[in-house]
Amino acid sequence: MAEKVLIGLSGGVDSSVAALLLQNAGYACIGATMLLHDGADEATSCAAAKAVEDARAVAQRMGLPFHVFSLQDAFREHVIENFIHCYECGMTPNPCIQCNRHLKFGLFVQKALELGCDYVATGHYAQIRRDEVSGRYQLYKAADSAKDQTYFLYTLTQEQLAHVRFPLGGLTKAEAREIAEKAGFVTARKRDSQDICFVPDGDYVRFMESYTGKKYEPGNYLDLDGNVVGRHKGAVCYTLGQRKGLGIALGAPVYVCSKDMSANTVTVGPNEALYSRGLRARDWNWFPFPSLREPLRVTAKARHSQNEQPATVYPEENGFARVIFDTPQRALTPGQAVVLYQGNDVVGGGTIVEILSE
């Protein structure tokens, strides 16, 4: 009997091609779309409806059963409310990582098992292999380095990896689009989404105020000596390293260096004040081993857009670990993820909670 796989169809080209590849490989495929949030406005609602429509069209073209899972409550709890909490605490969250952790590879895997499926599959660009010696599942970079999404997938547990397939891991984006065009999918030329799905216009402060009913109050800009140098629109409106949109002129470029949320102050300074040698992180997930026992040489990314940097990771008590870079790094930011690599292997990742000067 063919193995069954539940495929997360997002209404985009990548998930459509993932479904086709698995069907061609002989899997018994079922398509499903997750409804994750209510549209904040008419445009967002229309976009969500169009995504479901496109996903359904792909499933129908392939002759697949199709489900729509309404997971808005879980998305609000695990993603939106976490997003707001992080900003209000002075951190910068990564909602895509939380969505992957709790929804796409949490609840979605549960749905798959309830339907009697052996696996779930998505259109992510990443690869999974099982180490024959340790028996542990390993996460590897995608063949297309420009599309690699392992940074967003570091939370995948061993149990989840055992039930996940990434059919696009060995393809380039151009190859995926070519396959979609040949198959006649309506998603073939659909552009990639670059925005936070529940904040499509990028104005996260407006979204937060609408969601919570709060109004974030203005406060003081401070220089590195603690002197008041201007007024800001609310500390939640700014991220570390930000230069644009500060609305102050001090005779030289200044950047957000730190924030005090209890005092509602934002400290600004020169670019060189943004560099740090290391960070401390928690909530680690490790792939080659259950936990880090000794210092390890790695390359590290403290944001998705960053090039990997040589570093050493050191274990600490209570599941924490610190990462010390060979050279100082700019604007390391609490709330973001740090993901560690050795070559194409993902070693592990965690959530940054503290920036270390030494």
Descriptive overview:
The protein is of the alpha/beta class and 358 residues long. The protein has three domains: 4-183, Rossmann fold (3-Layer(aba) Sandwich); 216-269, Adenine nucleotide alpha hydrolases-like domains (SH3 type barrels, Roll), CATH 2.30.30; 274-356, Translation factors (Elongation Factor Tu (Ef-tu), domain 3), CATH 2.40.30. The chain has helices at 13-24, 42-62, 72-88, 95-114, 158-161, 173-183, 204-212; strands spanning 4-8, 28-35, 66-70, 119-121, 127-130, 137-140, 164-165, 219-222, 228-232, 255-260, 265-269, 275-286, 296-301, 309-315, 321-330, 337-342, 345-356. It is globular, with a radius of gyration of 22 Å. The model has no long low-confidence stretch (mean pLDDT 94).
* Biggest β-sheet strands, sense, barrel: 6 strands, antiparallel, barrel
The SSE string, one letter per element, is EHEHEHHEEEHEHHEEEEEEEEEE
Please, how many helices? 7
Q: Please list the strands of the largest sheet in the order they lie side by side.
A: 12-15-14-13-16-17
CATH classification class of the largest domain: Alpha Beta
- Structural class computed from helices and strand pairing: alpha/beta
Q: How many E-type strands? A: 17
Total domain units? 3
Radius of gyration: 22 Å
CATH topology of the largest domain: Rossmann fold
Q: Tell me what portion of residues adopts beta-strand conformation.
A: 25-35%
In the CATH hierarchy, the architecture of the largest domain is: 3-Layer(aba) Sandwich
Overall, the morphology is: globular
**Uncertain stretches of 5 or more adjacent residues:** none
Mean pLDDT: 94
Q: What is the CATH superfamily classification of the largest domain?
A: HUPs
Distance between the termini: 58 Å
Helix content: 25-40%
